[in-house]
Request: fold
Amino acid sequence: MRRRIIAGNWKMNMTKAEAKQFMADFLPLCKDAKCDTVLCVPFTDIHRVYKLAIGSNVKVGAQNVAWADKGAFTGEISAEMLKEVGAEYVIIGHSERRAYFGETDETVNMRTKQALKNGLKPIVCVGETLDQREGGKTEEVLANQVKKGLEGITEEVIIAYEPVWAIGTGKTATPEMANETIGFIRSVAQPLVGDVSILYGGSMNAANAQSLLNMEHIDGGLIGGASLKPNDFSVIVNCD
Reply:
């Protein structure tokens, strides 16, 4: 079921003290937000942010999840472990995981199934590179990522469209471009998982959020850099 979701992705940022200060500054600013507000934080911050968010409208998420229940998977964190420390959501298949850590559509599918099995809400990321877009392969790439990533899945998931060329570069697709592409993703995903919420994850910030969120197919945002700044992030979560 489609709903407005604004999820912050802290990536590899925020020490204990920084996370505590962020929450002290941010929570008063987002108390009237109408959207589902999620902070996807490093594993070491999950329990701390969860405890600080108790009684607020902020939920906590992780940035990855193992595809196995337990076992010899050095460095991985299981879904059960994530839930135990307060995570409710989890990002899966972020472009940085794909580019730097060998994530594939197949492992995205395995991780998504594991998250769902354990009651976590997966935010499944898809997106094309600049070369793929300029080569006219955007729809082919996105269709493959959606179909392979969601193969065998019928439960509700969240999808985040991140044009890889717009992440961390300050470049952003125009609202119309983003809306058109997310509309295509919806046409592929809807027969598989229903009328899914689809977020835009390409350098959404305080200045451009409202124009992006006004688009028909854009249900929210997966926010990187702006989610590290309480004032900026609050502007986004408080968009109409």
Observations:
- The first helix runs from residue 16 to 30.
- Residues 132 and 140 are 9 Å apart (CA to CA).
- Strands lie at 5-9, 36-40, 58-62, 89-92, 121-126, 158-161, 197-200, 220-223.
- The chain has a mean pLDDT of 95.
